[in-house]
Design a protein that fits this description.
elongated; 93 residues; mainly alpha; single chain
């Protein structure tokens, strides 16, 4: 018999109006209110995390990044040697 899944409990006090709204929405989707609320909260949490992880650059940083893409610096000698070794290895196969 598998061990029961570990869970944590979350409680919240909400208004009767919000409770009725959540209950109706859950019923319309054919889900329990717990399932409806947990899914909605999980989706909201994932969106909040994704939005926080988006890289935000100032206008000056954006211009610097675009310039680096449009005019990359010349490769250093070590990089040139590494590419030469790679070409040699690929030809040897």
């Amino acid at each position: 018999m598998p061990a029961p899944a570990s869970t944590a409990r979350l409680e919240a006090r909400i208004s009767p109006e919000l409770h009725a709204l959540l209950k109706r929405a859950a019923e319309l989707q054919g889900r329990t209110m717990t399932d409806f609320v947990v899914t909605a909260v999980q989706e909201a949490a994932q969106r909040a995390i994704q939005q926080a992880e988006i890289i935000r650059l100032s206008l000056a940083d954006q211009e610097c990044f675009a310039q680096a893409l449009l005019s990359p610096p010349k490769p250093a000698p070590a990089l040139k040697r590494a590419f030469a070794r790679r070409r040699k290895l690929l030809r040897a196969e």
